[in-house]
Amino acid sequence: MSEKLQLQPSIVFDCFAEVNKVPRPSKKEDKMIAFLKSFGEGLGLETKVDETGNVCISKPATPGYEDRKTIILQSHMDMVCEKNKDVTFDFENDAIQTYVDGEWLKAKGTTLGADDGIGVAMEMAILKSNDIEHGPIECVFTRDEETGLTGAVGMKSDFMHGDYLINLDSEDEGQLYVSCAGGVRTTATYDFPTSEVPSDYFTFQITIKGLTGGHSGDDINKKRANANKLLVRFLV
Known about the structure:
By secondary structure, the protein is an alpha/beta fold. It is built from five helices and seven strands, in the order H-H-E-E-E-E-E-H-E-H-E-H.
């Protein structure tokens, strides 16, 4: 039995295992787009990809639920790609290696990809299931959420047609979030003069490590040290 089957619901974690076999860095999601397109078509479901690279898989209502409102389930297909310094890993070609540690599923030396791979897996599980009664469903997978929301920005208004949308990318299990924080991007360019290092100068490298880490959207109030801020404080 695969270790993923120890986690419940098993169909979701089986799907997550499949998702983690597919490289999906932000802005380089072509393999994931092809995977989702093949997945939807393999189930005999209407599957479309827009010019931006977003994927929509539609599942008809189960008998007796045809008159229900159409629900859109949405997640993003890309992931943050980070690894430990001593780990050799190619995020554009290698599969994420996972293991179960007690109640947790973890990755071996890299980011896990659960943001938002677990949302993708939940949608896949619903699309595969034949024991859930539901109205019409549209499963939408957007690209490049992590580095600019360009998938969502590039989506045309007629790409999906549902009445309600549930986003599967929140921070905490069992909680519902209403509305969105939005996003703002700023690009700053600075010109500065350069000069050669004098011959009697020497250089050295400074490394900050051993910090707890965390997510700015969920852990910003926990007073954890930030490596960038610590480095600036040291230099000034």
